[in-house]
Design a protein that fits this description.
Blueprint: H1 12-16, E1 22-23, H2 29-41, E2 46-49, H3 53-62, E3 67-69, E4 74-77, E5 85-92, H4 98-110, E6 113-118, H5 127-136, E7 141-146, H6 151-157, E8 164-168, H7 180-187, E9 194-196, H8 202-220
Parallel strand pairs: 1-2, 5-6, 5-7, 7-8, 8-9
Antiparallel strand pairs: 2-4, 3-4
Helix pairs in contact: 2-3, 4-8
Length: 222
Amino acid sequence: MELDFAIIDALRQERTGYPEVVYCRGKTVDQAESIILDMYAREIPVFATKARPALAKRLCRRIPHASYDECAQTLSIGAIGNEKCGKVAVIAAGTSDLPVALEAVRTAEFFGSKVQLTMDIGVAGIHRLFEHLPEIRTAHVLVAVAGMEGALASVAAGLVSVPVIAVPTSVGYGASFGGLSALLGMLNACSPGVSVVNIDNGFGAGYQANLINRGGVRHAHG
């Protein structure tokens, strides 16, 4: 199938170990569907982000084993590897941050990581974070998702011994400036070991967390 609006990077998995991912926002449903079907025909595992329900409905009808998470807005066909390894912990400050947190979860899972999601443990009720710390500390890498002032990442990084990937979300009132306040707060985190992805970029966080997690697993097993 030749597409006049896209060039499929069919060799990306050979170069990097992971296939191209389809970012659906900004594409029409027809365009995104054509790209995904082309990849599927080439037997490339498919992971699509910001996928609208209308697109998912079409593809799930044509490909019964396609999987869609409406909250995360991710669609997958196949996966990388048969066994998931290691552990990525994803923590979300509030329920409003859940779509971005789930995007990180589905991304890391697709690329081969075991993932634990803990939600609604923001700093306004910080005791909830402490209650889950023993389990969170068993992960190789932590993804902290928060809007408002974005404090969760800095607090969490002061309590764990693994890398923390901070994800600012666009959740918050007017002075949060669509997530900019959380982004700046995370970039200025006092706790060491925090790296930051862009606003609402659950995919970027999940992808990076998977790389750290799988690298840690390879190192642990020699």
